[in-house]
Amino acid sequence: MTSSSPAAISVSTADLSMLRSYLLDLLVKRAYQEGDFILSSGQPSSYYINGKQVTLNAEGSLAIGRLLLSLLPKDTQAVAGLTLGADPIVTAVSVVSAYENRPLDALIIRKEAKGHGTQAYIEGPTLPPEAKVVVLEDVVTTGKSAMLAVERLRNVGYQVEQIIALVDREQGGAAFYQSQSLSFQPLFSIREIQQAYQAINQ
């Protein structure tokens, strides 16, 4: 791989191991920045991950869809996430699932109830009672954002037992989810991304 752009692969046909390496390269080169930042949680940080630089990229979206679909339990009926960061992720997984003959609906969870029409928190198809839904997230810090999605989904009767994220910043999110009896699986740890970043920028 060069330092300027991710290696050229066929994102639609590459095996999952190669796809994971490709996505890591995308995250490092397009999403990860070092500097002085304030996170949505209000915490200061010496780095920032702008996941939308990858999740809204055509190849990045397809890679994410294929990789996350492979992690979902077989009985998953839909994927969901809190707007805005999770929107392209749940959409990517849903579209890829249709190509894989394993169609899963996508649900978008609003932070505030819609002020007109049904005034719903959840956008997307109505699922059967007790449908099994997996919550997806781009970057997890404290874990509170995805937990809001979990609560909204459970309030309408869906079963949510798992959260999958692209990146775990390792700042308490995993422990928080464990305390809530939720399974948590990140695709990458922040340490892995930082190690790859340092290797490129030495």
UniProtKB/TrEMBL annotation:
EC number of the protein: 2.4.2.10
Transmembrane portions of the chain: none
Cofactor(s) listed in the protein's UniProt record: Mg(2+)
SUPFAM superfamilies per record: PRTase-like
GO BP annotation list: 'de novo' UMP biosynthetic process; pyrimidine nucleobase biosynthetic process
Domain Phosphoribosyltransferase as annotated: residue spans: 105-166
A Pfam family this chain is assigned to: UPRTase
Residues the record lists as binding 5-phospho-alpha-D-ribose 1-diphosphate: R110, K111, K114, H116, E137, D138, V139, V140, T141, T142, G143, K144, S145
Known catalytic reactions: orotidine 5'-phosphate + diphosphate = orotate + 5-phospho-alpha-D-ribose 1-diphosphate
Residues annotated for orotate binding in this entry: T141, R169
Signal peptide annotation: none
Quaternary state and interactors: Homodimer.
Homology family: Belongs to the purine/pyrimidine phosphoribosyltransferase family. PyrE subfamily.
This protein's name: Orotate phosphoribosyltransferase
